[in-house]
Amino acid sequence: MAQDSLRRLASDLKNFLAAQDEDEFILTAAPKRAAAVVSPKRQPADSLPQMPEGETLTVEFARAHQRIPSASEPQTELPANTPAAVQAAKPGAVMTSSQKTAALAELAETIKNCTRCPLGATRIHAVPGEGNVEAELMFVGEGPGFDEDRQGRPFVGRAGQLLDKMIAAMGLAREQVFIANIAKCHPMTDPLHPEKHGNDRAPNAGEIACCRKYIEQQIAIICPKIVVALGGVAAKALIADAKSLSALRGKFYDLHLDSVTLPRPVQILATFHPAALLRNPGWKKDAWLDLQMVMAKLGLKSAK
Q1: In a 3-state reduction of DSSP, which class is residue 178?
Q2: What percent of the chain has pLDDT over 90?
Q3: What is the pLDDT of residue 161?
Q4: d(CA 177, CA 149)
Q5: CATH class assigned to 84-298
Q6: Interacting residues of 83 by C-beta distance below 8 A, sequence separation 6+
Q7: pTM to 2 decimals?
Q8: First and final CA of the chain: distance in angstroms?
Q9: Domain coordinates of the chain in residue numbers?
Q10: I need a surface site. Which of 7, 76, 154, 164 has the fewest CB within 10 A?
């Protein structure tokens, strides 16, 4: 009788696990982040079914052979929304310019049609990103603002004008880098009044989670030498150490992505968001020191 109870329990558990979506049941989305585990209350030993002495109950689970790869191991499966051009490319190899162009264009169309989070219902235009597919330097901000929402392009407002000047001071042109955001649609404090100025906010954790695969695929496709995270939101989304921006600044980190494998090492450095520099001009000196670190890595000379 006790053996029959155990077999029924094992069968129920097996069926339950088989019915679950792995992405929801297993914490694979953020392998570098720890989650608390709550232990169930112990039941008295005499209340549990007992196996007859000398007998063993073996349970085989359909997914037992599927193991979560570590961050250092290459991934064998790509996300379902991975562009066809990426899937066709040789695994672990840097893509050609034509492959990158095709993959980014396909991904941009996916982003423009995305409604995975509520921002998709209130945006005017999605803002995938733009720039040189062979860029050695990539800038990543937090999310589009008022002007970006209307033009469908990243960093075209006042903050974007300052970013253009920052790029020029590094001896580069906007067309030589790639610019994107963590969130691809405009986060608003008051989505019922999209025409209102000053209606911007940072994307929340749920919105970032919905967009994470998009920015990670863009980074993997372009595979720049360096990513500059603009502001604390972008920095903490891409750098595993969940510290403040001031604690993250002044140091290069090896970039590790959750959903895709980079074909070659990429480093990331955090600095101030241009919008923050407009509000606090005194921070520009520190931001310039950060950019000079990038310039030294890439062998760039400042504009005269």
Answers
A1: strand
A2: 64
A3: 98
A4: 21
A5: alpha beta
A6: 102, 103, 104, 106, 107, 110, 217, 221
A7: 0.73
A8: 87
A9: 1-68, 84-298
A10: 76
The residue ranking higher by pLDDT, 249 or 60, is 249
What value does the mean pLDDT of the chain take? 79
Residue 137 reports pLDDT greater than 70: yes
SS3 117: coil
92, 109, 114, 200, 265 from 85: Cα distances, Å: 14, 13, 19, 34, 21
Helix (H/G/I), strand (E/B), else coil: 281: helix
> Is the separation of the CB atoms in 258 and 30 below 8 Å?
yes
Alpha carbons 266 and 109: distance in angstroms, whole number = 26
CA distance 237 to 142: 9
Cα–Cα distances (Å) from 191 to 85, 116, 128, 158, in that order, read: 35, 16, 20, 21
Helix (H) or strand (E) holding 269: strand 267-271
Residue in the block written with tokens 């241009």: 274
